[in-house]
Amino acid sequence: QVQLKESGGGLVQPGGSLRLSCAASGSIGSPNAMGWYRQAPGKQRELVAAVISGGATNYADSVKGRFTISRDNVKNTVYLQMSSLKPEDTAVYYCNLRRAAWPIMEYWGQGTQVTVSS
Hints:
By secondary structure, this protein is an all-beta fold.
């Protein structure tokens, strides 16, 4: 099993920055992908950014140039550096890990609230 523990959410003013962290433990497996999803009230959960074991990344169009995802394979931790935050970034952010090796499994963190408001 895998446990994901998010931290770093909070309240920030528009234009501000936050860094989210997610530490993974357990049978993580390799290769794998870790990412961040978000869900705003009344909307579906959407992919924000993801990074594979080797370091390749992808981003939602809405956050390109503002958010940066990275991972530390020694600490088994993924980060999401969020800059130039907008009110529409307000959501619960969920850490996700997907094993690419058998057994293919997907795991979710409990979520951390990010609120962008003045």
